[in-house]
Amino acid sequence: MRLHPQVAASLAARPRLTQEHVPADPMAQLRATRAAMEAAVDQECGPPIPLAQVSDVDADGVPCRLYVPVPGAPVLLYLHGGGWTIGSVETVDRLCRRIADRSGCAVLSVDYRLAPEHPWPAPLDDAETAVAWLRRVAPGVDVTRVAVGGDSAGGQLAAVLARRHRDAGTPVAYQVLLYPAIDPSMSSESYREMGDYGLDPTAMALSWAMYLGDEGKSESPDVAPLAADLAGLPPALILTAEYDVLRDEGERYGEALVAAGVPCVVARYLGVNHGWARKLALFDAAGAAADQVAAGLRAALIA
Prior knowledge:
Elements: H1 5-12, H2 26-39, H3 41-45, E1 53-59, E2 62-68, E3 73-79, H4 93-103, E4 106-110, H5 122-137, E5 141-151, H6 153-167, E6 174-178, H7 190-193, H8 201-212, E7 236-243, H9 247-259, E8 264-273, H10 284-302
Parallel strand pairs: 3-4, 3-5, 5-6, 6-7, 7-8
Antiparallel strand pairs: 1-2, 2-4
Helix pairs in contact: 4-10, 5-6
């Protein structure tokens, strides 16, 4: 294994906060982390690609951003990452624009409520509300061709959505999971191998705890996608990172989908770490990942 030089440089450039610069109040620290993540978008993700239509919309109370490259396009409902506690439509704006531009598909990016202020099931409820709004309102897109996707925590939400809509008889056509958080037990080998490359086991355990709160059950299929019957789920594209604690569980989910008869492509990007796919200005591999997602969407929804 060899860490890509672009990733090594990014890790070396991370600010190293001393204890006196860390707010004593955990919520103040979390708010500062959220603000810093958004402030870094231009530097990490580059300039926005112009599209025919980009609009902030209200999906029955859930704020979303809709990207439409051409009228009547099929649509990807996208859920951002950030451990269910940070991130927003802003932090994945450049990624969503590139996917829309390269795929010819619209993207509805969901600004779901965050834990710990709004633990499970609030983020999942917001995602469901956004799906229902999209299918009912159909604002210039083709809602007969819908995919779901997301990165990290958003990948977990997308996987759960795909299964819930299969069960409800309203299936989606495709799912895109970028380094998804699949296993709340955090039992895979990559947690022991890859603990110092941007996302460590302690941070991931805290994210799960804040997301689940008092109500979420780690053994429920609405939390752990591997706990569900996977037969009949929509075809999937799963991208993982070599230097990521979530690597093995994402790949194990792909293997389980294939075993259940679900068409699935799993690609491990070598040399990169967790969260690389949205950082289009830092990593060449981010553009490749966005374009692979776009190609998968075109094949599933347009071809």
